Amino acid sequence: MDSEATALAARIAKAERLTILTGAGVSAASGVPTFRGPEGLWRQYRPEDLATPQAFARDPLLVWEWYAWRRERLAACRPNRAHDVIAAWSQRSGCRVITQNVDDLHLRAGTRSLIRIHGSIWELSCWQSCAAQGGTPWRDETIRFESLPPRCPSCGGMARPAVVWFGESLRGEDLRAALDATSCDLFLAVGTSAVVYPAAGLVHDARRRGAFTVEINLEATPSSGDVDLAVLGAAEDVLPRVASLMSAAE
Ligand code: OAD
Predict the structure, then answer these.
(1) Per-residue pLDDT for 1 more than 70?
(2) Does residue 230's CB lie within 6 angstroms of at least one atom of ligand 1?
(3) 77, 82, 154, 213: which has the highest count of C-beta atoms within 10 A?
(4) Is the Cβ atom of 187 under 6 angstroms away from ligand 1?
(5) Can you tell me which atom of ligand 1 is nearest the CA of 118?
(6) Pairing state of beta strands 119-126 and 186-190?
(7) Residue to substitute in 50, 104, 218 for testing ligand 1 pocket (most ligand atoms within 8 angstroms of CB)
(8) Which of the 8 DSSP states describes residue 144?
(9) 26-39: pLDDT as tens digits
């Protein structure tokens, strides 16, 4: 890993516009299960069976039980060294961070210019998009709701997690910001299986637009063959190593 880390450190040091895309692998060392890893199932369900508007319409209680379980687990999780390094790099001008993670651990690590393309598990919105709330989410960090599903404070109807479900579009402003961020010198895709679009397409957009593209992952993904540099390793090891090589070279 060291020659790759050295090459990456040099690239990051000189990049004027750095964009980092993160996925569940970045939060793995914090104790957050990845979606497609060994702990990806909840009861007998796959995320794709629960994270859809159809699943919620059919059985809102079941979907909320899954989210309540995830919120409870997440409440005990802290940002790890990968989040910390990304937060430090985000302070540089020209750095943008796009995350698919809904856990808000990047925010808690102090990341700036963060684009949360799949929303936040700590925000809710009105299922009916009632006139008072519209589509505007509100923050709610309750761990144990008195009853499920929680309610919209305006209309009393059901609230839903303000996350993007399969079959739903990203919020327009997030998609625009993410596409804009593919215009960069260096694009790092960290800890994502690169199978869920449109996020998985961003690295290809960046490459088409002239960026040097890098993947950091424990294993090969469908993107590995297309990036300029694929680094096999854990985000919480590789990123601090790169950061320390950058400090040593200063
Ligand atoms: P996945 O669970 O699909 O993939 C996690 C990736 O992280 C895998 O490629 C692992 O090899 C890698 N990985 C695991 N631990 C790692 C570590 N310590 N360091 C580096 N890499 C590691 O998660 P995502 O790609 O984020 O969507 O999934 C994309 C989307 O699918 C999620 O945002 C979610 C899900 O369904 C929605 O909720 C809409």
Answers:
(1) no
(2) no
(3) 82
(4) no
(5) 39
(6) unpaired
(7) 218
(8) S
(9) 999 999 999 888 77
Could you report the per-residue pLDDT of 82-97, keeping only the tens digit for each?
999 999 999 999 999 9
pLDDT band at 44 (very low <50, low <70, confident <90, very high): confident
Distance CA 125, CA 187 (A): 32
Residue 22 Cβ < 6 Å to ligand 1: no
Q: Where are the beta strands (DSSP E) in the chain?
A: 18-22, 95-99, 114-116, 119-126, 138-139, 159-163, 186-190, 212-217, 229-232
Which of 198, 197, 224 is closest to 213 using CA atoms? 224
Give the pLDDT confidence score for residue 109 in this predicted structure.
Answer: 98
Cα separation, 75 vs 19, in Å, equals 28
Residue 208 has pLDDT above 90, yes or no: yes
| Cβ–Cβ under 8 Å, residues 140 and 119 | no
pTM over 0.85, yes/no: yes
Atom of ligand 1 nearest to the CA of 219: 11
CB 30 within 8 A of CB 18: no
Task: Please work out whether the CB of residue 193 comes within 6 Å of at least one atom of ligand 1.
Answer: yes
Joined together, the tokens standing for residue 74 give 């997440």
CA of 24 to the centre of ligand 1 (A): 4
The answer, yes or no, to whether residue 40 has pLDDT greater than 90, is no
Amino acid making up residue 67: Y
* Tokens read off for 14: 């000189």
